[in-house]
DNA sequence: TTATAAAATGCATTTTGTATACATCAATAG
DNA sequence: CTATTGATGTATACAAAATGCATTTTATAA
């Protein structure tokens, strides 16, 4: 489902050795859906609106979940929404001006925080001398900086004439 | 607790807007504990063993959980364990030769997989033309490559004489 | 002005994975 | 043989994501 790292057959035993599929260090479906909505909208003609039901139907995903995703995207100014009959949504900016990292930052909240010593909760006795916080900070920054090099416009492969094919599907 | 990004006061509404603390895109306690065990062991004198109870007591964490962590670390050759009376564990290699990335790869299984089109589960209609998979691959590789630049020996700050202080605490 | 269609909002429920507890088994020292 | 320590497997608790449902608000068309 989508591009996520999630839901594969890799099984690890967690008790004893590794048991089940982990879902940490992965983006949420929330982010997945957010990006896919933006990709969908990027294929619309200028001025044309898409509805939540239309997008949910296209991808075959939960309409209810998408409602929240769309609202969030609107709140942070990635899309513009119009209520009422013939309403819908469209990109608030050109796809080439919407950074993947920017979107992820608004859908994966804890990315910005590497909290080693939470004032209340810190119970790690070595935190005063522990450098892991900065090491992980460093790694997470690398992750986000890489995402920042891409935009929604980069998210569809332009090779092999497939973008034309997808247009047809999208706007059928 | 520890260095993790987890458990902070950042609250987002998830329904409607954002509700609760997300815990995605974060390392598990499993990894947290794994690294902390290795850090602890790196402060032991050569030949000296530590027990699970000792480490659990030192950090004030669940002994039961630590049992699995230790077993996993032994399975992948990071530590050597000895059962029975006067048993315990020690590092299998010098701390400077144990990479953070290497450890994380053995405790966060799904890091290696950016599965966009799972043979059975793929339901994303645009996956044939979707470039998000490679974009996320790229970002995740940046993350891991950064971790690969550090070892367990780098995980304790050597500044301000704190490493001496921690030694005392550790080996008291 | 009324009917309709769309997003906005809030709450409830289900699902899933992590964390934890608990109960034994296996091995080693003395 | 017995005590101690890791190894192993099962069961339970909890938190967060995902999903579903109901209602409200807003805008447009007829």
Strand content of chain A: under 5%
Considering the protein shown, what is the CATH homologous superfamily of chain A? Winged helix-like DNA-binding domain superfamily/Winged helix DNA-binding domain
Q: Please estimate the helix content of chain A.
A: 25-40%
What is the domain tally of chain A? 1
Order of helices and strands of chain A: HHHEEHHH
Going by CATH, the architecture of chain A would be Orthogonal Bundle
Report the mean per-residue pLDDT of chain A as an integer: 73
The top level CATH class name of chain A: Mainly Alpha
Give the low-pLDDT segments of chain A: 1-24, 112-121, 159-172
Distinctive features:
homodimer; 172 residues; mainly alpha; Arc Repressor Mutant, subunit A; two-stranded antiparallel sheet; 6 helices; 5% strand; elongated; DNA-binding
Description of the molecule:
The structure is a homodimer of 172-residue chains. The model of chain A is unreliable at 1-24, 112-121 and 159-172 (pLDDT under 50). In chain A, helix 1 packs across helix 3 and helix 2 (52-59) packs across helix 3 (63-75). Helices cover 38% and strands 5% of the residues of chain A. In chain A, a hairpin with a 5-residue loop joins strand 1 and strand 2. Chain A is elongated, with a radius of gyration of 19 Å. In chain A, strands 1-2 form a two-stranded antiparallel ribbon. Chain A contains 6 helices and 2 strands, in the order H-H-H-E-E-H-H-H. Chain A has helices spanning 29-42, 52-59, 63-75, 100-105, 132-147, 162-170, and strands at 79-82, 88-91. Chain A is mainly alpha-helical and 172 residues long. Chain A has a single domain (29-170), classed as Winged helix-like DNA-binding domain superfamily/Winged helix DNA-binding domain (Arc Repressor Mutant, subunit A). Chains A and B meet through helix 1, helix 3, helix 5 and helix 6 of A and helix 1, helix 3, helix 5 and helix 6 of B. The first copy, chain A, binds a DNA duplex (30 and 30 nucleotides) through residues 14-17, 19-24, 28-30, 51-53, 62-65, 67-68, 70-71, 74, 81-89.
